[in-house]
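Risk register update: the risk that structure generation would not scale has been downgraded. Supporting records follow, first protein first.
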Amino acid sequence: MKVLMVLTSHDELGDTGKKTGFWAEEFAAPYYVLKDAGVDITLASPNGGQPPIDPKSTEDDAQTEATKRFNSDEELKEKLANTQRLENIDPSNYKGVFYPGGHGPLWDLAVNLESIALIEDFYTNMKPVALVCHAPAALANTRYHNEPLVRGKEVTGFANSEEDAMGLTDVVPFLIEDKMNQLGANYSKGEDWSSYVRVDGKLITGQNPASSEEAAKALLRFL
């Protein structure tokens, strides 16, 4: 059984001069949930090759059991260094898709035409689509039956209060919570930094890094 994981290729945190990318825990935790269940995982990104890892997600206070496992997993590091280009992905080969967050997706996956088409294809074909933290940004321009895909759907994603705590409210191109509300989604959130996942049909969204494992388990249940 094959699942696709889509990672950002964007590494600039606005015009701050700082780096961003994907959040290590949000990649590692879901990857191992799926891998340990026997799922065959393909990694892809807009540019292919090594996607940028948010440097903050590699600091000591951001480490979890999953990231520690990743840090010593040379096979996965090699696989990550060679992600496929999104334009070469055939969605019909996969049973579902998972999008890890980090701030990167706000800039590239939100507007990437291959990613948008991919999500719309999975959703139209009733395959589970899971996105965590900032990755729901990838839903910003997706459509279903000529209206926003998330309209009327129960969703979550990185909360305004969490972005404010990061000090990045004025740096990011848009706030996930605001965007979901603008698109007519039924956005809700749990406590800041605690696991909170919403499942609406085959659409799975997680609020923050702590939600990534639970979101992957929700995806696994559909598989």
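Supporting record for the second protein:
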Amino acid sequence: MMAEQSTRPVEPNDAGAERLRVFLVDDHAMFRAGVRAELGAHVEVVGEASTVAEAVSRIAATEPDVVLLDVHMPDGGGRAVLEAMRRSHPQVRFLALSVSDAAEDVIGLIRAGARGYVTKTISPDELAAAIRRVADGDAVFSPRLAGFVLDAFAARPDAPVADPELDQLTNREREVLRLLARGYAYKEIARELYISIKTVETHVSNVLRKLQMSNRYELSRWAADRRLV
């Protein structure tokens, strides 16, 4: 799953291995608890946050070595955290950890300053190894995600990844749009994102209004044209 095939898992008793200080940013408490439990033998988890404002304040206070950063949160997501922190605390390194493997999410986070991007299917040992590599200054991606980054920077190294229509949408609206375009029903989207069906309907209504479209089929074609699915 990791791009670097030589990466070996970090053992809790590796001789001379310094315990890295890690901060968790994710809006799902159960996921944070699971990551904290799985990484406890490898790193020192010095704090956690569920919102952008909490993350910015607590990261500044704890000054961790590496921040594990979710991409999509209701109040701006990982990119907002990166943009707030990168000038005031440039020594802190960020590793995106997300359910999303969409190209625009990967590229957007890397352009904002993340040192790597892995998905939540990663194993605990691989995640511990990825954290240490990021702390050492390496970039860490799964092979498919690394391809997105290489393609984007090689093709247009000086051009921002921007789409005026897409930029109208919030992170959560993009997430709902992507699942909708993949054929998910509203009930399935609600279950996947841990939100209510009513909230899904509201997001879809907002996306239709912002993009001036009338139905989910137009949205699906629009998303496919931009490779959001």
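The first strand starts at residue 21 and ends at 25. On this basis the risk owner (M.S.) recommends closing the item.
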